[in-house]
Amino acid sequence: MSLLAIETSSSQGSLALSHNGEVLQLKLSEQRKQIAELLPSINNLLAQASLTLGDLQGLVLSAGPGSFTGLRVGMGVVQGLGLAQDLPVMCLSSLQILAQTAHRILKVEQITCAVNAYMQQIYYAHYAMKKGIMEANYQDCLIAPNEVPKPIEPMNLVGDAWEVYAEQLQQTAYHILYPSAEDALTIAAHKDAWQPVSAIDVNYLRTKSAWQKN
Questions:
Q1: Which neighbouring-strand residues pair with 111?
Q2: Cα(149)–Cα(120) distance, rounded to whole angstroms?
Q3: In DSSP terms, which residues pair with 91 in a beta bridge?
Q4: Tag placement on the chain: N or C end, fewer CB within 10 Å?
């Protein structure tokens, strides 16, 4: 099965393509440039595998929470490709993908994610390994720094909020990592949550009007 994963929820976006058991990856430039480079980068990745868009069987989207602009960019591209090629889409939590990335890199099975949501807020969740993928023990939420629960032992802390809100969170041992499209494909391989492209949406964990006020 040939799948394309798109991750644009963070400042370090990425693409990944699985085909015949192999995975090709491509990192994107800074977020401001992703709108212009996303489609050419997808074409580049497909060309590396000697594939076309018509060879894909599905799309995997990192659907938030995360950057409002980044999520809209990823969503727009997935909608366009999905409609043009009649492809199903799997929407995954960006925090779950981050936890899966942390598992791959750090070789740990419990992750407490805290990502800067700006506006003095944090995207927070706790994930643990279950049957090959990271699953939520504490669901994705949007909270203030002073509302963050005491990290669950063992304290494998991941995300930029531990640094941005260091004074409030009072944690010094953490890893700043970003969700990777490669790990979105790993999660997708363990799930059966495909949707028609017309049914998908992103998860901001806050309203669009809240973003527009800032």
A1: 127
A2: 16
A3: 61
A4: C
pLDDT for res 21: 87
User: Hey, what amino acid is at 211?
Assistant: W
61-73 burial, b at 16+ Cβ within 10 Å, e below that, comes to bbbbbbbbebbbb
pLDDT of residue 74: 95
Structure tokens at 64: 């938030």
- How far, in Å, CA of 50 to CA of 54, rounded? 12
Burial string for 87-115 (b: 16+ CB within 10 Å, else e) reads: bbbbbbbbbbbbbbbbbeeeeeebbbbbb
Question: What residues in the chain have per-residue pLDDT under 50?
Answer: 208-214
DSSP the chain: --EEEEE-SSSS-EEEEEETTEEEEEE---GGGHHHHHHHHHHHHHHHTT--GGG--EEEEE--SS-HHHHHHHHHHHHHHHHHHT--EEEE-HHHHHHHHHHHHH--SEEEEEEEEETTEEEEEEEEEETTEEEEEEEEEEE-GGGPPPPPSS--EESTHHHHTHHHH----EE-----HHHHHHHHTT----B-GGG-----SS-HHHHHT-
The structure tokens listed for 2 are: 């040939």
Closest CA to 42 of 83, 71, 81, 92: 81
pLDDT value of position 32: 66
Q: What is the pLDDT of residue 29?
A: 76
